[in-house]
Amino acid sequence: MRKLIITEKANAARRISTILSDGNSRSSTSGGVTVISFETGGDEYNVVSLRGHIIELDYPEEYNDWGGISPVELVRAPQVKNVRVKSILNTIKSLAAQSHEIIIATDFDREGELIGMETVKEIGVDMSMVKRARFSALTKGEVEAAFENLAEPDERLADAAEARQIVDLSWGAVLTRLISLSSGQVGKNFMSVGRVQSPTLKLLVDRHEEIENFVPVPFWNIVGKFGMLAFKGDHETNPFWDKDEAEAVMSVVSDEKTGKVCGFDVSMKEEYRPAPFDTTQMQVEANKIGIPPTVAMKLAEDLYTGGYISYPRTENTEYPKSLGIRNVLEKLKDSEFKSEVEEILSQEKIIPSKGKRRTTDHPPIYPTAAASSDKMKGDKWKLYELIVRRFLATLGPNAEAEVTKCSIDVAGQMFESEGYVLKKPGWKKYYKKYLKNADVRIPAMKVGDVIDIRSMSIVESETKPPYRYNQGSLIQEMDRLQLGTKSTRHDIISKLFSRNYVQGNYMIPTPSGIALTKSLEKHGGGITEPDMTAKLEADMMSISEGERTLESVVKDSQDMLYEVATKISTDSEFIGQEIKAALHSQQHIGICPACGNNMSIKRSKNGNFIGCDGYPECTRAYPMPRGALVQTTDGKCDVCGLPQLRIIRKGNPPMIQCIDPKCTSNTDRNELGLCPTCGNGQIRIMFSKAGRRFAGCSSWPNCTQTYPLRPRGTITPAKRSCTICKAPMLNFGTTEECINPDCPGRKKRTTRAKKTEVEDTPTE
Question: Where are the domains positioned within the chain?
Fold first, then answer.
């Protein structure tokens, strides 16, 4: 028999071919498309990979005229399928005509089912020829088992994915056109709106408003330190909301030298293992180690197609009994985790932890093959190690900690202390590099003991606003509210950045992001609320379960969208005014002192810059600060009269500076001293595109002298040169140091000292 295998990606095609042919496959090119061929078991196989969706959903061409077609007309407009890569489809059609069986081997999820099904339907084959290979890992065992037990394609699963395509296209197109036309933002500057994107943006705007409107409330804590270990004890009333009350208590205890132990309890606390990784939790944990969700998903996809981990898009947090955990561990013996793996294998029983979610399509994310840091580099290795260590943590024993609770009476005032000592690390031994627990020791005591007071202090503080979302915590909240899916949430967040609705690591909404959200809240018929989106998600899920049909879900969605679109269309004038005002404030920098025109942020092929709206008569232009979050201000530079910006960089306090980098208000602050290499330029603080600071000569590119700088903290020039290498001297707190890490004098000092300052200094 001749068989045709259709995969979703080229890597998967190569790996499946290698596994099924035992490495005896061959490649050829047909019409510019790679075809992998091999023979096995008396059958001839051809393997062709798609590039994700090669068939796209869109509106007919006559509906692409934004000015001629009312957005409301799009709600129930027909949608058509266009072939995006005809060469691949033609190759598949030609090979299918010679084949007796067609096997869909795309990713086993809704999108994968649709990608495969829409392809075979487009070429018009007899569906009785079509089979489905379902696997959760590109390992030899899983792939061979999948092809030995081929299933029927799942029409309902494909319909659920197609319903999402139809719904997302109509909502995105209708709302985006309505808002963009209302605000006059068309062409490349269109205002993107979506049924998942908009409620996600609202989460960030609401949190931003909470923080901006937050009024801190002062409070006071009375803290004592006791015994030889100087362990901390908090007054039982902490916090005090009345300063007089706190000071009254402090006056009672401040002169006391001893306290009396009136309660002492030691107990063991069992600390349970974490749940296995689903997609959301993997992204959250990856974000904590510096891998953003979008990058994490790309790396996870590469690890999956490379055969190193199981399928990374899953909501399951319970390993199936069929997984064969001991077999997985045996494979990991050939990795850098050999000793940890052998410890777990030596357990009498290996009973994995379970999470709250259980699905039957894919297992939780787990490692499927050994790897080493010698061959796998950078963030890919960091993510692989995280997945391995999480897997090991779910198999280790529970941890045990000794928890001590102590009550101390000081002149009738009670102080409470709590100690924590990890006694049995259990699963934490394998996952400790991602944990922050530290022991807090309290010495053994008994009731009635008298203990010395080392110090008593009253600490003033104030309530803090809620934390801003980072990408990891936002994905968690989207998951909780059922905004989007495990496969799309990271893309939604990327879109918020690309449309300039949010900026920075802490996703601060821009004026346009805030104005868009506020307008949609007021005029959008509820599309910024998660309930509407969650209902549509549930409806689409019900298609795959056979409870609804594609047609009924699409009709309900269209009815809902029509109501929303009609309301927005009626209020379009108000929406336009609100968004235009916000865009002006976002792009308006200030007044040009030369001609009196506005200065605003301009776009060019080389990036954004600040320019005068009076161009070409006025040619004043200045670069945007590199690698920073930039906010506009109402201030003017005292030196040159140009507008000022508020610059925010990670690890440093916000700074107000003139838009002209050559203004003396900037150069005086950033100049560290004369360049010892050229003798003409000044060594200045500079920033890379990524926002990392370093010191470089102002005569660049004629002089290329640079020095690394510490990434955090204030840098103060000592206003003198090193007596040995002539490089500028800097002040760090109470110490003075040469900026040159290769200075012989600096090396001698650090060798005699602790070498810590050199270790803390990054290289660019």
Answer: 2-50+85-153, 163-212+498-578, 218-272+400-462, 279-397
Closest CA to 413 of 531, 555, 535, 254: 254
Phi, psi of 579 (to 5 degrees): -75, -40
- pTM score of the predicted model: 0.78
pLDDT in tens, 666-680: 887 888 999 999 888
Q: What distance in Å separates the CA atoms of residue 581 and residue 12, rounded to the nearest whole number?
A: 50
pLDDT tens digits, one per residue of 149-203: 999 999 999 999 999 999 999 999 999 998 888 888 777 778 888 889 999 999 9
Q: Compute the average pLDDT of residues 84-102.
A: 93
pLDDT tens digits along 6-22: 999 999 999 999 999 99
* pLDDT for residue 651 is more than 80: no
Beta carbons of 390 and 431 less than 8 angstroms apart: yes
Supply the pLDDT for residue 287. Answer: 93
Cα–Cα distance measured from residue 693 to residue 686, given in angstroms and rounded to the nearest whole number: 6
* Burial environment of residue 376 by CB neighbours within 10 A (0 to 12, 13 to 18, 19 or more): middle
Q: How far apart, in whole angstroms, are the C-alpha atoms of residue 488 and residue 483?
A: 9
Q: What CATH superfamily classification does 163-212+498-578 receive?
A: Topoisomerase I, domain 2 (1.10.460.10)
Convert the pLDDT of each residue in 616-643 to its tens digit: 888 888 988 876 777 778 788 888 888 8
DSSP string, 537-563: HHHHHHHHTTSS-HHHHHHHHHHHHHH
- 327, 35 contact by CB (below 8 A): no
Measured distance CA(755)–CA(229) in Å, rounded: 29
**Location of structure tokens 């013996």:** 333
Give, as one character, the DSSP assignment of residue 191: -
- 430 an active-site residue? no
pLDDT for 571: 85
Considering 304, 311, 431, 707, which one is annotated as catalytic?
311
For the domain made up of 279-397, give the CATH fold: Topoisomerase I; domain 4 (1.10.290)
DSSP structural state of residue 433: G
CATH fold of 2-50+85-153: Rossmann fold (3.40.50)
